[in-house]
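Kindly inspect both lines:
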Amino acid sequence: MVAAVSTGLWIVGLTVLSQLGGWLADQILLASGLDRTVWLWPVLAVAVVLLAGTPTLALALAPRSAAVRTTGRVWLVALLGFGALSLLRALPPVHHEAYLAALAATAALAALVVRRLRRRAAVTPVAAPPGGPYAPPPGAPAVPAVPPPAPDPATASGGMADERRPWAQGRVSRPAPVTLLGLAGGLALLLPWVWFGALGGLLETLLAGIAAAAVGGLAAALLGDGFWSRFAVGTPPRPARLVLVGGLVAGVALLSLGAGVGQSGAQLPLLLTLPPAGFALAALAAAGRRTAVGGGAATAWLVGLTVLGPLAWTDDEEISVVLAGTRDVPFWVSVAAGAGLAVAVVLAVGYGVLLARRHAITPHRAVAAVAAAVLLLTAGIVAVGPGQPGLHGERLFVVLREQADLSGVPVTTGRAGRDARAREVYRRLVETAERTQADLRRDLRRFRLDHTPYYLVNAIEVDGGPAVRAWLAGRPEVDRVLVSQRIRPLPAPAAAARGDAPAPSGPAWNVRLIGADRVWSELGVTGAGVTVGSSDSGVDGAHPALAAGFRGGDDSWYDPWDATATPTDQGGHGTHTLGSAVGRDGVGVAPGASWTGCVNLDRNLGNPAYYLGCLQFMLAPFPAGGNPFTDGRPDRAPDILTNSWGCPAIEGCDPRTLRPATAALDAAGILVVAAAGNTGPYCRSVDDPPAPYADVLTVGAVDRQRRVTDFSSRGPAPGGAAKPDLVAPGDKVLSAMPGGGYAELSGTSMATPQVAGVVALMWSANPALVGDLPRTRRILTETAAPAEPGTDTCGDARNVTGAGLVDAYAAVRAAQR
């Protein structure tokens, strides 16, 4: 018994630590911008199975106690099941449907194997002790003989009970009371997820249901009547022992199974809810032994519905530190998991008190049916009421083979020249997209597949799953099909980010470091006549530092996520970055410049389609509700774009996704400034589009001492090009936040808009430079001040500092010559 308890504690500790450690490792890699480690979860699974399975195997073979041997065998099989299921995490998380299909097949196969093994064991005669299994031990006082309970039809198979009457009776019986109570318990455990979560796509949801059913079947096969009978011995049998001891053993087994279910992150809530559910299952098993039916099916329902919650109502990619710190998906997953734990404890206590006492209440079918029906109705009401109704799956981003030919576009500069270039680029892009997308759009309409066409990259975003993806990938005009991520809605909006720092009394330290304040005071240049476009989380258009700079009109704001009519910002990131470019009150580099805005991030996540949609809006703004293909106004394009974002693979981009977009903006004479990324100090970490592209001005970050920060991404970029191009202040930069306040934030996101502001000063000082991108880049690099790269130069100091620290005063003086 001591060995059994020690082994159980070892399994629990090892399993919990491995799952938390594995998830944290995934998150560190994600936050660091490093590639996903495919071998992480398989190695962890093998390690846990070996380390926990070795003492468990000894427990399954050595002890004389049948109950202890059964405990070891069940835990060993559960560990093997955990290992098999965990191997599936080698599949990329972005292909969730494939993972769920593999999970369903693996769990179903494992359940079949367990049932066959139990059947084979059941036909082996087992010698009963003298006087039968319920006889008192030698020397014990005689007690009246107690007949054994009626046989459970699940005994022979060790799996789900066959609740049908013999076919000779000509009908199928109604579900047993214990089965209905298992269903009710499962619905109760599912309810928090229905309330706080949101479903994915149709196929994703169906596969999640099938996978959950398979896992429930595996649990029922593992915890069959043959298992529970080992803990119901005694004279007379003691149901309380079955619940307490059997429930503990079952809880450890369910913990192991749950640890293998779901991609990284989705399994964590099951570590809380499944173990206490073992006691509820033990109570149902005690009642099932009295009523002779229903125990196996009750286990399948209760475990299957518990597993269904995190599988179907969450996206494991959103259980991420990227969204932590606000009331976003990680918060609501924690709430649902906590509520599930409370429900599981209530079920364990309630079922234990009602069903597992010596004189327990015999479950009544009508009462159990009413309980299940009420909970099913409640779940339905919650789903369409306080829940998030509908399907919210990912979409597909289809990139066509032919991209517009922009060679030969006249390179004219100045305001009129830049506008003429933008008009010609817009015309060619739209013509190419209309011509090459015609057949595909017609077929999409015929199949009633919702879709959104784009022209800046010749691409279409399509609503569809794996089958649609395979069909699209096989079409001759399609180059490749990517997944365009969509975040699922929340039960309540996350609170808007706010700043509690006061407005600066003069120019902020970063503005002084690059000499922008001298440009205002000595050269009289503030950026007037130049427009900066911001694609980010949004902009608080009412902020005192930004309100006066909004360009206005019906084509200066676009929100593809939430269709807001006026500039707004929940996350705060966009307000802060734009404030560093054009904000007043001493926080912005070019306070006299105008701005336009677009929302390409929602809750700090984006996707290829919306990143592209905002860049497309910047080339040819269009009025709210307008058609980008016909209502675009290239004459109203902003001059400079500040982009403090990147599109990593987890959001659906590949290295080439946005390449045609930045090439088109460059051909149109619009300067694209982009953040290098915050995945330093690793070399070759400038890798998320659009930062690596040659036609993008990529910006790293320095601190007050002109030292490149540890977080600033380093080059070289893929292909060997030196990146970043420049560095700017990015450590504890003070700027605007939603609600009228200010805050200090750090990142290359903060450095990037300052370079955009410097270009706005240059073009304001010399309007002939507008659209002259080669000369503008040359001036910026030639006038840059030295910056300190640190000890690791990644092969060349330019891969850390670029040309150096941007110098606003020197750049504007050079632009005026």
Observations:
- The first strand starts at residue 198 and ends at 199.
- Residues 126-172 have pLDDT under 50 and may be disordered.
